[in-house]
Amino acid sequence: xSKTSKKKFKKIKRLFYPLGGGFFLLLGFGxxxxxxxQALKLSRILGTLAFDxxxxxxxxxxxxxxxxxxxxxxxxxxxxxxxxxxxxxxxIVELLRIPLIQNREDALQLVSMDADEExxxxxxxxxxxxxxxxHLSSWEIIGVCTGLILxxxxxxxxPMRNQYLNDHLNHLRTLRGNKIITSDKALREGxxxxxEGEVVVVLADQSQRxxxxxxxxxxxxxxxxxxxxxxxxxxxxxxxxEVSRRTRDNTYQLEIxxxxxxxxxxxxxxxxxxxxxxxQVLEEFIRDxxxxxxxxxxxxxxxxxxxx
Length: 308
Description:
seven-stranded mixed beta sheet, 308 residues
């Protein structure tokens, strides 16, 4: 496709942005009219249809799962991929039902938490911390519930191109007290928040336009950015990794573990080492619970452009 054609396509695409925003609002209203059990059943049906019929990015998901788990046969990979699609539809459903979570008691009914003692001290003392997480289970609802259970937090997010969807999504994210820091202001506002004793949360598992370094992640050479590690070491605050998974009773189990930083300084090599450490924690969790991760994202699209 030529540059001129691409520009025309983008202009046409923007015309549909208001429709996308309106559909998002209507869908949320309909899902909140259902019971949670009804919404969960619907999400599993739609997830199965997305995998079997729509096949959105199905080839990419199957390829990445096969490369990551070569010991699994094709039937096992397809079964795992189907779970991935079901969980991602469930994530959207849970996101749109966030207004039904009104207080700490509601959050505790959905999320159980196992946090390091050091993180509990951070919360009690308002001393500031960086929390690195990934696109695991229903990450949006986890963020809202964590803010209600512990205290409101600052989430670094990348704005969406569709401003209508972006505004509504940020409304849901901040509905119960959490705050948003856009990615273009992450360093300045992130440092300020950390020095004021706030908790700054970053989802650091996706490919970024700016490639700072490459590491091994899930058995493949992977591009990473250094922002979360820089924030922690620059502000002199601890860094934690947050992982979450769905349980059999349709609730969420959340773990928050500390990553060692006491032997690191705020220099390029140590920042890169900290990035490697928290990716290792994420990798171990994803290998144990692969159905929870967002395999539909093309995580290695930029890594393949650079030879190792």
